[in-house]
Amino acid sequence: MMRHRLSGVSLLALAVSLSPQIAAAQDNAEASTLEPIVITATKRSEDYFLLPSTTDIANADELLTRNIETVADLDRIFPDVNIRTRSSRAYANFTIRGQASLDFYNPSTQVYVDGLPQDSFNLTRSLPGGLESVELLYGPQGTLYGRGAIGGVINIVTRKPDNEGRIGFTSNLTDQGGGGTFHASTPIIEDVLYGDANFTFRNDHDTYTTMTGEEVGGTKDLNGQVRLRYAPTDSPWDMTVTAGRGHVSSTEEYFVMESMLKDRIAYPAPSQYDLDTWNFGINAAYDLGFATVTALTGYQKSDLDRTVFGSYTPEKQWTLSQELRIASNPDQGSAIDYVAGLYYQHLDFTRNVPIASQTSRQKVDSYALFGDMTWHATERLDISPGLRLDYEHAAADAAGPVTFSNDNGFTALSPKLGASYGLTDEWRAYGLVSTGFKAGGFTRNVTSTNNAFTYDPQHTYNGEAGLKYRNDDGTLEAQLSAYYNITKDYQMFVDVQPWQYLQNVGEVTSKGINLKVRAKPTEAFGITAGLAYNHTRFTDYNNPVTPGLDLTGNTVPYAPEFTANLMLDYRFELESGRGALVPYVGLTYVSEHYFDETNTIGQKAYALADVGVKWEIDEKVTAEAFVTNVFDKTYATYGFQYPGLGNLYQLGQGRTIGGRINMTF
Questions:
Q1: What is the DSSP letter of 289?
Q2: Domains of the chain, earliest start first
Q3: What are the tens digits of pLDDT across the range 149-191?
Q4: Model's pTM, two decimal places?
Q5: How many helices (H) and strands (E) does the chain have?
Q6: Are 231 and 239 a contacting pair, CB within 8 Å?
Q7: Residues 1-7: what's their mean pLDDT?
Q8: Are 313 and 304 spatial neighbours (Cβ–Cβ below 8 Å)?
Q9: 649 and 6 in contact (C-beta within 8 Å)?
Q10: C-alpha distances in Å from residue 13, one per residue of 16, 61, 171, 203, 582
Q11: Strand partners, 454
């Protein structure tokens, strides 16, 4: 088989007079040191430097500078990460350390917002207003998070409402569209009750022209959320109630034939969807002094009204989750820090194919008991064991041309053992053995051509070793890690579109090296760099659809061997109290990767460059001009073979020129 590979300026007006007094320049000692990194995604606050694992974090300023507005953009800042939408943003494909999300409905990476898990239809959501940081725990994270965290966990952290009243907004306008965020926070009863609200809006212009001349590919994305926080001063209680609503309307599910990539001309099969999401959450914590007890309740509902390639296939899903845990308080100076808890989730999913009078429904109940601890054995040695027990029960029904009714249960034990040792005050070495799994179940997209409905759990066994450095001056940090993992009974959609269904296809082995460096060599100059090598292959391929085809040795889809990120910025202080200018350059590299297991359709290596200059008028007002994908590189983010049409692709965003203003009061 032949191997296929892919080889308007706008201006934002700035009102300088908004700030009559320019703030003084940042203190030299502050400007020349890096912000300390504290990770909360481990379900307790911990210094990332001491953890026996690889972690990463990006604060709100870093994300804003790189024009990162959604979860799907985070691969431009985290190494060994590739995030792409598959067909639509409702189906997120996360690949972290080679662990690709080849199951449309259950990505290999979990996304959390302020401790609450996000529904699978909402994983590439816009980043919320009031953002503090985004944390990444590299996987597998089976002990703490269970199913679906083989690749890792992305934890989005926002600032809680408190006694300080704040209003802020970010607005951007580009030749490809526009958008913005608004965030407001206020005390309702001083020292007792607080509230906030945030809204995000994106309007992405059409990116394709069909063969019939129609403009398509645009998206409107609107999200809103309100929170009420009860946290009386000197009280052990801290409780936050959250309610949110989102709506996406898009024609992004159009596809370009291979001969028309450069011209971005799409095949004119009707494709449009509306995605409505609702979420409600309660995060209640009680401080016992020596530990904190936390109860987290989440409810999410998604309604996807979808037509793709002229086929109307609406889907609905709702989930209810409950976690109860106790975690030691880090300021107690105890010899042992720990977290332990219980978890429950119910998922209800329905898919309809009206033209075939076919309906399929699934109900999945998940239960878990978990514990993780760190024993500070000596001043330099930490030992971190962990264990999780999961049980999942899945029931599936299908009505129509295909009738089916069955249920099954799956149990998984996920142990972990890590150790870190301080070689000196600046150097720390660690080792980790961890496990993860994805539960078995029943295929969701039932069709008359399915010859099997069930699939078995997949299990991942991981070994990792690393070295961390943080100098005493706080101007240089680095992480270097190497890993090797084996996944048994790998789950992947098989057969050709549009008749694909989920099955186990054998064994996958992944190994690689990550390097991340953050440096502040002078008070004006900043560097962030990441480099990753990953080798992920089928090491025992067994596809039930094609029993005679052996693809052992092939690269797993969506798993590039090399990824790299580089960010350089330099701060120029202006005279006469006019603030500072911060020009920056960002580079992203992704090596060749494939969209199918036969390695016949894919995307060759490409690099993207972003440039910009930010004017920090004062501590409350910044303005920015930027260009992303400076060289207007054409690259595919998703591709597949369709009978009678050949290879079809979706393309990444071309050159974007625009400006942004950010204000807080």
A1: S
A2: 16-664 (2.40.170.20)
A3: 898 999 999 999 999 999 999 999 999 999 999 999 999 999 9
A4: 0.89
A5: 3, 45
A6: yes
A7: 38
A8: no
A9: yes
A10: 10, 21, 11, 19, 18
A11: 442
